[in-house]
Structures are given as structure tokens and as C-alpha cells.
């Protein structure tokens, strides 16, 4: 069997798919396509907004916008700028986009460990029996001062339960969130498969990037189709990677 799962790159398309699901839509931060009207609206509603390319991967070309009393502060990688008016901010973002499609997403303040932000990666795979299973829940810890946690942006992978305890969550809360995340992941795999069928493509694996806010509520930042599994090899406990790879081999994926 050959691995044939297709990559759906557009964040906007995948966001719209999530919003079509009554339960999953509860976990989607407010997201809109980038234009002047939508930027003004998002700036009026939230203290922070993320500016993301709809087709970007690996956490690249993402800008965080923070609204403060003295203007609009943005950060790209480690570079920071300030704009006094929303018009000047829009002009900068418009030029930065360079005619590419971008989305605006409500900013979620990520939970931290030792002042480093982290989010959660949920790997979901389809078994040879036709059912979906959450095969791995891991954590991506970003570098201090950075706005993204991605592995290719200097982030590191860590074990879920261990990280949650170190971040101040008790064991009972950690397990409750773990169960919730697994359920969200499986529901996403099942839901996305319906749309993949519309594309006449096979849906075999997806990975969710999920943020926890200060209350422990999960927010789906993005769903990755045809996700990378090699970074799991960097974990000190290799059982997660072995588990994911065992399911992957059922549909012809070897790495």
C-alpha cells in the first residue's frame, strides 16, 4: 500500500471545515480573512491578534499584533515594530503579505513552563479497521521571547503529562484535559474525512495544534494534513514515535 494522503494547505479552508461541526466549532478562535475591514474589527475586539499565511507551514511568516495604549505593537520572529494608527499597521501588513492570502486569528495567551510558551500537538490516524485513533499527544515548547512553538522555529518537543504537571496542573486536571484532547482529535479526523471524500482523496492522518488558555480551555490553532512524524523521534521516550509509526505502516507510510 502506498501512502496517498493529500495535504490541504489552506488554513482558511480547514477553519471553515471545523466551523461546520457543532462541537468542534466551540474550540476554534475567531478567525477571519485578512482585509482592512476585518483587521479593524479584530483590533476592536481583541487585545492580541495573529496574522498568519493561509498556506504557510512550520510557523513561518507569522506576526503577532498586540494592542496597547500607545499603539499597535507587532512581532515577527524576534523583530518588533510599533504603529500609531490602524491605517499604518494595515499598510505594513498588506506589503508584508505581498499579494498572498492571510488570516487574522484571535490571540490566545499560551500556557507557559519556565516562561516558555507551549502548545499541544495531537496526532490522529486512521486504522486498517477504518476507525480513527488519537495515537500521540505531545507538547511543543517555544523559545523564550518567540511567538511560535514550532519545531522548525527552534521549539522542542516534550511529553504531555510531564509538561502539564511542571506547568502547575494537577494530575486529575491533566488527565481530564488529556481525555478532552483525544476526543477533539478523533472528532476532527472523522469530520475532515468527509471533506476529503469530496476531493476524492484519502484521509489517513491529521495533527492538531491546540493552545490552552489560562483556564485550561483548549483552542484549535490549526489542523495539519499529512503531518510530520519525524520530530517525535527527538523525545526521550520513543514509545510515542513507535506507536505513531505502527499505525502509519498500516497505510503505507514509513516516515
Give a verbal description of the structure.
This protein has 255 residues and is of the alpha+beta class. It has two domains: 11-29 and 110-251, 2-Layer Sandwich (D-amino Acid Aminotransferase, Chain A, domain 1), CATH 3.30.470.20; 31-106, Dna Ligase, domain 1 (2-Layer Sandwich). It is 30% helix and 29% strand. It has helices spanning 11-19, 36-45, 86-97, 160-166, 171-198, 239-248; strands at residues 31-33, 48-53, 63-68, 71-76, 79-83, 102-106, 112-113, 116-126, 132-141, 156-159, 205-212, 218-225. Strands 1-6-2-3-4-5 form a six-stranded antiparallel beta sheet, sandwiched between helices. Strands 7, 8, 9, 10, 11 and 12 form a six-stranded antiparallel beta sheet that branches. It is globular, with a radius of gyration of 18 Å.
CATH class of the largest domain: Alpha Beta
Alpha carbon gyration radius:
18 Å
Mean pLDDT: 93
- How far is the first residue's CA from the last residue's CA? 14 Å
With helices defined by DSSP (H or I, 4 residues minimum), what is the helix count? 6
Low-pLDDT sequence parts: none
Determine the structural class based on helices, strands and strand pairing.
Answer: alpha+beta
Instruction: Using the alpha-carbon principal axes, give the shape.
Output: globular
Largest sheet: 6 strands, antiparallel
Amino acid at each position: 500500500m502506498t501512502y496517498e494522503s493529500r495535504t490541504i494547505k489552506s488554513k482558511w479552508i480547514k477553519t471553515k471545515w471545523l466551523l461546520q461541526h457543532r462541537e468542534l466549532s466551540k474550540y476554534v478562535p475567531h478567525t477571519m480573512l485578512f482585509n482592512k475591514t476585518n483587521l479593524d474589527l479584530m483590533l476592536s475586539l481583541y487585545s492580541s491578534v495573529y496574522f498568519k499565511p493561509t498556506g504557510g507551514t512550520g510557523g513561518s511568516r507569522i506576526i503577532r499584533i498586540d494592542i496597547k495604549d500607545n499603539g499597535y505593537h507587532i512581532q515577527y520572529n524576534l523583530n518588533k515594530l510599533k504603529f500609531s494608527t490602524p491605517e499604518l499597521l494595515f499598510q505594513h501588513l498588506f506589503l508584508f503579505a505581498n499579494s498572498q492570502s492571510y488570516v487574522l486569528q484571535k490571540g490566545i495567551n499560551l500556557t507557559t513552563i519556565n516562561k516558555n510558551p507551549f502548545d499541544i500537538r495531537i496526532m490522529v490516524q486512521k486504522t486498517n479497521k477504518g476507525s480513527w485513533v488519537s495515537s500521540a499527544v505531545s507538547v511543543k515548547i517555544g523559545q523564550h521571547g518567540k511567538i511560535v512553538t514550532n519545531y522548525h522555529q527552534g521549539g522542542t518537543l516534550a511529553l504531555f503529562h510531564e509538561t502539564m504537571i511542571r506547568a502547575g496542573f494537577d494530575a486529575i486536571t491533566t488527565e481530564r484535559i488529556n481525555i478532552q484532547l483525544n476526543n477533539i482529535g478523533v472528532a476532527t479526523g472523522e469530520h475532515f474525512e468527509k471533506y476529503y471524500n469530496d476531493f476524492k482523496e484519502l484521509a489517513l492522518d491529521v495533527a492538531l495544534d491546540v493552545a490552552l488558555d489560562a483556564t485550561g480551555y483548549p483552542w484549535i490553532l490549526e489542523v495539519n494534513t499529512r503531518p510530520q512524524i519525524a520530530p517525535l523521534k527527538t523525545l526521550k521516550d520513543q514509545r510515542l514515535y513507535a506507536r505513531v509509526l505502527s499505525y502509519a505502516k498500516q497505510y503505507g507510510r514509513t516516515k
